[in-house]
Every structure is written in structure tokens, then in C-alpha cells.
Amino acid sequence: MKPVNFDYARPKDVAGVLPLIADDSRTVKIMAGGQSLGPMLNMRLVQPDLVVDITGIEELRQVVETPDAIVMGGCITHADIEDRRVPDMTRGALPAVAGGIAYRAVRNRGTIGGSITHADPSADWISILSALGATVTLRGPGGSRSVAVEDYMLGALEADLRPGEMLVSVSVPKLSVSARWGYYKSCRKTGEFAHAIGAFLVDPERGVSRAVFGATESRPIVIADARQLLGEGTATEPGRDFDSRLAGELVEAGGMSDPIDRQTHVVALRRAIQQAGSA
Amino acid sequence: MTAQDVKQQGVGASLLRKEDDRLLRGRGQFVADIRLAGMKDVAFVRSPLAHARVNGVHVPDALRERVVIAEDLKDVKPIRAVSGLAGFKPSDQPILAFEKVRQVGELLAMCVADTRAEAEDMIEAVDLDLEELPAVHDMLAARKPGSALLHEEWGDNVFLETFVDINFEAALDAPIKVTREISTARQSMAPMEGRGTVAVWDKRMEQLVLYTGSQMPHIVRTGLAECLGLGQHQVRIVSPDVGGGFGYKGILLPEDICLGWYAMRCGHPVRWIEDRREHLTAGANCREHHYIITGYADRDGKLLGVDCEATVDSGAYSSYPFSACLEAAQVASILPGPYDFPSYRCRTWSVATNKCPILPYRGVARTGVCYAIELVMDAIARETGLEPHEVRLKNLVGPEQMPFDNITKKHFDSGDYPEALRRAMAAIDLPALRARQNEGEPDGRLIGIGQAIYCEQGAHGTSVYAGWGIPMVPGHEQATARMTPDGGLELRVGVHSHGQSMETTLPQIAHEILGIDVSRIKLVHGDTEYTPYSTGSWGSRCAVMAGGAVATASREIAKLAKGIGAHLLQAKPDQVELVDGRVVGPSGSVSLQEIAHTWYRLPQNLPDGVDPRGLEATIGHKPVRDSGTFSYAAHVAVVAVDPEMGDIEILDYVIVEDGGKLINPMVVDGQIYGGLAQGIGTALYEEMNFDASGQPLASTFADYLLPGPTEVPAPRLDHMETLAPYTEFGVKGIGEGGAIAPPAAIGNAVNDALKGLGVELTQTPMTPRRVLEAIGKAASGKAGASADMTAQGELA
Ligand SMILES: Cc1cc2nc3c(=O)[nH]c(=O)nc-3n(C[C@H](O)[C@H](O)[C@H](O)COP(=O)(O)OP(=O)(O)OC[C@H]3O[C@@H](n4cnc5c(N)ncnc54)[C@H](O)[C@@H]3O)c2cc1C
Asked: Is residue B214 part of a domain?
């Protein structure tokens, strides 16, 4: 379990990365926290000629506040968020989820950009960020573009990265004071990837009610208007009338064929919604 | 030294572990810490297929000198671990496979390079011509005629079939009869440190030296020498610090032999450090049992008989030295557990499959056996409407029956089994828990109470193992005790510590007898060059056997020291006594230090007739009876099951253990905690799955789940100390016990929680999916074709 021989570069800025990753004469891999790439290198699942370490790039470690969003550089770590070095505008959602990712040692190095680019369906960021309505910004030879987090993930271990592109930042909308969220993940032990995730956001002031079934076989299943699942449930008790049957149909329509998977995902979402009520 | 000090160090003292000073500071020395000049690294070309004909292993000419293939090893003997049990079919485990490969990960070639990474690069240049054969992956199917065969010359896939029938017919009329199909998953042992070996030819000593983390250095030496055709004086095994063994590090591996062969020829040291993928997929498998078991009882819950068919997936080869049948054949003799009943029948099969050999893992066979019999006891309780502990109390062997020969002629040396169970049950408030259970949890979870009781035979010796006829039969265990010129003491034993704390506990025993401060007693072990022959550390034997040997040798030193001391005190030997490290006579006393100084440095002060053995003794020890000590424990678990998610949480865990005299109670607690963690792994997490082509499905710890600190509750421990009648100090072996009962106790608790749903789980690990599947099945069974498939009616 040792990687193949590879070259290593650690550019100081994004402009220094782009020509390296545009070179299609050799296999180039970006490395952020290395928490997913490291094992894949060791198992020789990836055999790059060059690894480009992006953790020395100031821009990717920055956090910028705009009137309605907080924009984090791609190399912000899970621990940065957990420890609130990144100001929290999500009423505690991001720090709480960050603290439940893996183990502290992994959180110290693992990055938000690396996690969503790695596109593991069971990972945490992809689900909660989809519920919060976050977008990512990519930069490449043709300039920058932004896409919704759930669209950035194309499928299991597949992100919408065009040749020569990299992720530079993640933008998370600020929540209103009356917003409530819930996040429930089912895993067998601390630090294990999830088997089922439910994520929920209700932000009446902004007219948002979003639900996410995460840890599916592929992309998270996003219910952009979750009111259909809530029935007459009130803001303080949103889970009261949760429609399990409809939820089951939605995950089935989302491609989940196994009845036990459907059950655990529906229960996870119901519990996330109940949590939002008791927040 | 005062009497108070003696108590703080001797037998019974919870002395801090001496070895922790280096181990906890990261200053231990494990195989991978050893650096020898010119050392090169090894990576093995392993079979990617479970079962295939080997048509060729092609090595590019440029690499040929640094790659070893089967044809190079023509003079090396395969590993052959026979058993003397009638009908056993031995297998030849090749060092490097040639005609056939029989498991994924089997060795085909060895690549040598400056670094492991470069050796792995070489692997990719070796071309394998393999012709895939149908894989045998299911032990039950493998028993049937028509199955593909691993060892064609056998005509079937069965290493050994055993059968025992003791008055079985008599049970058939019992009014209560419960039959269950029960199984434990295949596991991987997963010590923190995997295997590893550095091999070098020592030119001066004309010896092959192997540094390898081994529980059984002397056995490895014997096996290695036999395969390589060397005299045993030409082989030295050094086992440095060992980061956990659990049985895996007792086994002679083809890797070791390959490295040894190469080191004899290449002129530089070579090393192989097993990586986690090799460990999980190619090496350390254990535990996979299957039972069809019936308990016969009367309506009062009195057990009348047990009938069982047990199958163990033994994997591809019989491993050295324990053989392929240790597990299954033991099942037949230990299944009755601590229960006294009159009728018994058991048939067992040790089946060959295209998986790595099954190896003895902490609790060998007992974990599966305990799970099987204890699930049946609870099933009987449910059938009779009695509390499970009431049924157990009716059937446990009683203290008044001790010593007791059970139905399979196991000799229970001592103990009060019912008392252990009563105490464990008293530690939880059963009526309150039953009330809470009836009321239901506010969060919708279901709670359950489960218990299990087992006996652990430890330190079983010659009379037991002679019957097995495997390559290793323990006889007398020897120890050397030797005073140093400054009054310190060296102890040399052939067992090796891989977590047992022997650097602390064996000196405690010597201290108890000689009064020498423990800090001045040095344990020398883990090196065949310096220690007496021993079968090593296995079978919960070290405290009883090596501890007994150290006690015997220390007494000999006491006798010798008294001889010299008497002379110095101008007294007769029978007028002196050894008290707290001093020889005391009628006219005064002299310290052991002065005695040692005199023997080694002032011999002119000794009379001509002084005992020439000086202050050194090597002596063998066997307990008065060598049929083994019987420690035992009752485990009680309280769990909460989430019927929607299938999650199981352990709310409370109680252990009442009887290990006889505890040499160091803190060390015993540590052994129990560690065993419990592994038992919880068996119960809830660990599973090495294979697909139909024999491919192992877990190659990292992301797929092979081990319990971590947050998954292991702090158990409540209580000890009974019924002294063993046949051993020094009344010590009993306890090393494995913690790992035996948890699957049964937790399994029974889960089944107790789910009994209202008509659900019983009989397979480990009890994963959330298995819980939900069982609930779904019970619900659909009850509701027929109803749409309401789940406990809570969540979904269509
Ligand atoms: C033991 C363990 C347990 C874990 N448990 C969890 C868990 O419970 N929940 C969870 O969510 N995650 C878990 N993880 C994953 C962890 O969160 C990682 O941080 C994450 O998967 C990858 O982030 P990284 O920064 O380490 O990325 P890297 O490993 O460096 O990179 C991952 C991939 O993304 C690419 N990449 C990285 N950054 C960029 C970028 N800016 N632009 C373009 N491409 C980029 C890389 O080329 C690579 O393909 C676990 C990891 C480990 C080792």
C-alpha cells in the first residue's frame, strides 16, 4: 500500500495551479487535505504523475462575508468550521455538522472543497450544503462559473469539473433569525461514513423549505419544496404530520429500490425535521 | 523492606505495568522499528483469484534476480500441520504457490527492492497466468457432493468430521424442544500491529535470525527449521515488542519461510511489514461457525439434552501449529458449557474453502459455542415463560459438585457458577428494568436484558493436547531464575507477552517468594537464544504455566540463597528463613544482595562444600493436574434497540468473573476490558464477507468495522476469587474470557428487546440491517401480505 512515484508541486496561488492542471500530457491530481486522496494513492487507485498541493494558497483559506452569504475558500477545513474560525451564519448548522465528520485528526486536515469534489454520497457536506442551498465557484481556463452544490455532484465520486478547472470557493446563504434546521445521520460507529442522512431547512422569511435525503447510492435527493412532506405541521412541530408514505415514494422515485434503505432514509429525514422543531 | 511494601508488589497487588513506561511513551521496539544496515524491503505477489490453476508466473529477466518464485524453493518443504484425530486429512500449504492457488492473497512470488514502494512497483511487472476455477466460498455447500474441490486427492472438502453421542436418545421425549440455526461471521483479528519479519543471516553465529512479532517464538523456530531443512541451532527467533497478537502471531507463515530462505542467500537483511490490506484479505481470518442446535428441556426449564451439528469454515489450509480442526473439533467438547445435563449429541465438520486459513483467535471456538448454547437457553426460557437467569440457575453446575466432570469429561476444577450469575443479576435492578421495558421508552426504542455465562479452560496441558496430536504438545513449562551479582534477579521464560503484562506479573510472583523489589527483577523473554523452550503464549496459559514455573524456580533460588546465607550466619540451613529479601537465622540476618555479592564476587568466603548451582535455577513446572483451569464469568447486558433504524446501544454492561487468585487485579481488569471490546466487535461490527468468487469484500477499516472507544461502554466489573486447586497460588487463566460472552449476552438482550415483535436474531454481527430485516420478516410473517412491512408502519 504505497503510492506510485509522483512529482509534487505546491503553488502559491490559483494562477499557479491552473497551467499545471491544464497539462493533459500527464496525469495531474489536486490534493487538498489528502484525507480521501491519500488512501486512494496508497491503494494505487490513482496513479498520478504530478500531485498539486493547494493548501499553501492564501485565497483558498479565506472567508468573505457578503450581504446574504458567507463565502469560504475551498481549503477551509472541517475543524475551521467546527471551531467557528469561520463565522457561523447558519444558526449553528455548519459547526454542528462539521463536528460530526470523522475524527478530529481527519477534521484538522480535510477540507470542504475536497469533500464535495470527492463526491462521496455518504459524506456530510454534500447533504447539509444541499439543504442550505449552497453554491460552489469553479475557476478554469475559461474563467469562473458557479453551480448549486447538488448539481456539482454528478454521481458517486464524480464532480462536475471540466478539464483544467478547480473549485475555489463555497458560498452558503445566511439564514434568517427565524430559520430552523435539522440534520440526522445514521452510522454504525463514530467516524464512520453515513448509511442514511436526513437534512432539513425551513426559513420562512426567505420562503425556503428544503429537505434532503443523503447517503444514497449517488447524488443526494433534494426536495426543493418540502412543504408537501410536512402537511399541517407547525413551525414548532414541523414533524407532527410528516408524510412518511410520500417521503417513501419520493426516495423510491429518486432511485432507491431497497425497502430497508428507504425506511432508514425516511426515518432519518423525519428525525431531522423533528429536530428542527425542537431547536 | 516492610511487610506493607511486600503486599504492594507481590501476588495480589495492582502494580502499575512496568512495560507501560516505554510503550505509552512510544518508545517500544516493534519489528517495524528495527533498522539493520543494508536492509531491503519485500512485497509479495499475491493471488488475485480465490481458486485457480497456476499456469505460469513470468518475471522479466531484468528483475529475475530480485524476485523469488516457486521453482526457486524446490528444496523447501511446505507447511504441514497434521492432527492425530482419526480421519483428519492434512494439507500442504506451499510457501509460494505452484500448481494451484486456493485463496485470494496466496503467495506467488516475492519481490525485493530498496523500499516497499519500489517492491510494489515490481509486483506490477510480474505477469500471472492463472486459469480460474470455481471457488468454494460457502462451507455448507462445500460439504455437499458435487462441490468444487480444493484438495482433489481428498475426494471431498472436509478436513475432519467428528461425532459424539452420549445417551442422546433419552432426551428425545422432552416436552420442550427448541431448534435454532445460529452463526458467527468470519472475522479478522486486527491487532494494532500486523505481522512483520526482518530476516538476516548472522555470519558469525552461522544462524538465520528472524525478528518477528511472535507469541510462540520456539514453535516458529521449530516449524521454520523443518521447512528450510536447518538444524534448530541454526535458527534464532527474536520477538521484540508485540502490538497485540490474539492468536495470529502464533502462526508459522509462508512469508516467514520465504524471507528466511532469501536471507540465507542474499547477503543482506530483508524485511516484510504486513500492511492492513494484506492483514484483512490474506491473513488473519477467524471465527466463522455455523450451528444447527436443538435444546431439549422439561417445562420447568431443566435442560435434558443438546443436539448439534456444527460446521466451521476452516479455509484453504491447515495452519501451523494448531491445524485446521482445532475450532470445530473443540466445539464438540466445549458446547455443553457450564451446564449439567444428561444427553448429548454433536457432529462437527472442519470444512476447506477458498478463504485464508481459519486461525485461533482469543476465545478460540468458545465465542461461537457460547453464542449458540446461550441463545438456546434464552429460547428455552421464552418457551417456558421463565426468566432466563432462572433457567440458567436450574442447569448450572453447582459449587457442591466441584470438582466436576461434565458430560464431555471436562474437569471443572472449582467455582460457584450460580453465584457469579446471581451477583451479576443483582448488579442490575431486574424488576425496575422489566417495568421500564413494559412501559416503553419515550423515544420509541425497545430495551432488553441479556445474559451469558461461560467457562474458559486455560493452561490445558499434555493430557489434553496429546489427544489432539498436533505439531505442538505442551509439557512442563520451564523458567530460569538467576540472581545477578548486585542482588537483582533475571527471569527467563519461553512464553512471550503480546499485551499480557508479563514483565510486571511474573516479577510480582518472584517478588512474592524472594522479596526482591520488582524494579530489580528483569523478565527476559521473546528470544529463543536466551529462553527455555516453550510452546508459547496461547490458551490462557501464561499466568498458570510460566507463572508456576517462575514460582518454582524462585523457590529453588530461595533454597540456594538460604544455603549460602546459613553459612554466612554460621547457622544450619534448617535454622534460617527467607523473610522480605533477607535470610534470617538465630544470630542475625543477611540480605540477598550480600548473598549474591558473596557468591559471585567473594567466593573465597564460601566453604568448599557450597552448592555449586550457585544462584541460578532452571526448572520445569506443571500444575498438579494438567487438564486446565476453569475460570468463568457471567455477563449481563442491557441494550436499547431502535426498531426504525436497527441501531443497538449498550446501556449497561456487568461482568462478574472468577479468575481464581488474581496476580495483579488491575491487569486482569485490563484483559477483561480488551476482551470485551473484541466481543462487542463480534457481536455488532466485525464481518469479513466474501463474494461467490471467493473475493474478500473488506480490504480497509472503512469496510471492516472495529468498535472504537465510543462504542465500548465502561463495564461494571466484579471479581470472585475461588482458588484453583491445582495451580500455584490458585491462579486460573483468564486471558481470553472477555471476548467469549459478549455476543451471547448482547444477542440475548437484543432478542429480549425484540421479543414483543416476535423477532430473534441468531447471526453475528447484529448489524442495523440484520435487525431491520428480522423485524420486517417477523412483521410480514404476522401480517401475511399486509402492506405494513415495518415495525412503525412507516412505509409501504
Ligand atoms: C477515517 C476517515 C473518516 C471519514 N469520515 C467522514 C465522515 O464521516 N463524513 C464525511 O463527510 N467525510 C468523512 N471523511 C472524508 C473527509 O471528510 C475528507 O476530508 C474529504 O473526503 C476530502 O477532503 P480533503 O480535503 O481531504 O480532499 P483530498 O483528499 O485532498 O481530495 C479529494 C478529491 O478532491 C479533489 N480536490 C480537492 N480539493 C479540490 C479543489 N479545490 N478543486 C478541485 N479538486 C479538488 C482531489 O483531487 C481529490 O480527487 C473521512 C475520511 C477519513 C480518512
From this structure: no
Provide, rounded to the nearest whole percent, the portion of chain B with pLDDT above 70. 97
Q: Do B418 and B343 belong to one domain?
A: yes
- Is any ligand 1 atom within 6 A of the Cβ of residue A195? no
> What rounded mean pLDDT belongs to chain A?
96
Q: Which of B61-65, B462-466, B788-792 has the highest mean pLDDT?
A: B61-65
Read off the pLDDT of each residue in B459-478 and give the average, rounded to a whole number: 93
Ligand 1 within 6 A of A80 CB? no
Same domain? B672 vs B694: yes
What pLDDT was estimated at residue B1? 44
Determine the average pLDDT of the residues in B378-382.
98
Pocket perturbation via mutation, ligand 1, pick of A61, A81, A97, A117 by most ligand atoms within 8 A of CB: A117
The parent domain of residue A199 ranges over 182-278
Say how many CB pairs under 8 Å bridge A and B.
72
CA of B146 to the centre of ligand 1 (A): 48
Residue B795 to residue A3, Cβ atoms within 8 A: no
pLDDT of residue A240: 83
- What's the whole-number mean pLDDT along residues A233-249? 85
Q: How many domains does chain B have?
A: 2
Instruction: Identify the contact set of chain A against chain B, taking CB-CB distances under 8 A.
Output: 1-5, 39, 43-44, 186, 188-193, 195-196, 244-245, 248, 259-260, 262-264, 266-268
What is the rounded average pLDDT of the residues B164-193?
Answer: 97
Which pLDDT does position A279 carry in this prediction?
A: 58
The domain total for chain A is 3
- pLDDT higher than threshold 60 for residue B789: no
Nearest-Cα distance to chain A for B707, in Å, is 7
A1 lies in a domain? Answer: no
Q: How far is B27 from chain A, CA to nearest CA, in Å?
A: 22
**Does the distance separating the beta carbons of B702 and A245 come in below 8 Å?**
no
Query: Does the pLDDT value for residue A153 go beyond 70?
Result: yes
Specify the residue with its C-alpha closest to ligand 1, atom 3: A102
CATH number where B580 lies: 3.30.365.10
Residue-range definition of the domain harbouring residue B745: 285-462+625-765
Quick one: residue B341, left, alpha or beta (phi over 0 = left, psi -120 to 50 = alpha)? beta
Measured from the Cβ of residue B438, the count of other Cβ atoms closer than 10 Å reads 8
Residue B788 pLDDT: 37
Within this chain, do residues A13 and A37 fall inside the same structural domain, yes or no?
yes
- B585 and B638 belong to one structural domain: no
Chain B CB contacts of A188 under 8 Å are 647, 684-685, 705, 767-768
pLDDT digits (tens, 9 = 90+) for B588-609: 999 999 999 999 999 999 999 8
Using CB atoms, which residue from B275, B769, B794 is nearest to A267? Answer: B794
Q: Is residue A2 part of a domain?
A: no
**Pocket-testing residue among A30, A45, A149, ligand 1, by greatest number of atoms within 8 A of Cβ:** A30
B117 and A5 within 8 Å at the Cβ level: the answer is yes
Q: Which of residues 493-522 of B touch A (CB under 8 A)?
A: none
pLDDT of res. A277 = 83
For residue A262, the chain B residues in CB contact (below 8 A) are 795
- Nearest CA-CA partner of B225 in B77, B80, B351: B77
Residues A186 and A274 in one domain: yes
A22 and A103 share one domain: no
Contact state of A263 with B707 under an 8 Å Cβ cutoff: no
pTM over 0.90: yes
Three-state SS string across chain A, please? CCCCCCEEECCCCHHHHHHHHHCCCCCEEEECCCCCHHHHHHCCCCCCCEEEECCCCHHHHCEEEECCEEEEECCCEHHHHHCCCCCCCCCCHHHHHHHCCCCHHHHHHCEHHHHHHHCCCCCHHHHHHHHHCCEEEEEECCEEEEEEHHHHEEECCEECCCCCCEEEEEEEECCCCCCEEEEEEECCCCCCCCCEEEEEEEEHHHCEEEEEEECCCCCCEEECECHHHHCCCCCCCCCCCCCHHHHHHHHHHCCCCCHHHHHHHHHHHHHHHHHHHHC
Q: Is residue A273 part of a domain?
A: yes
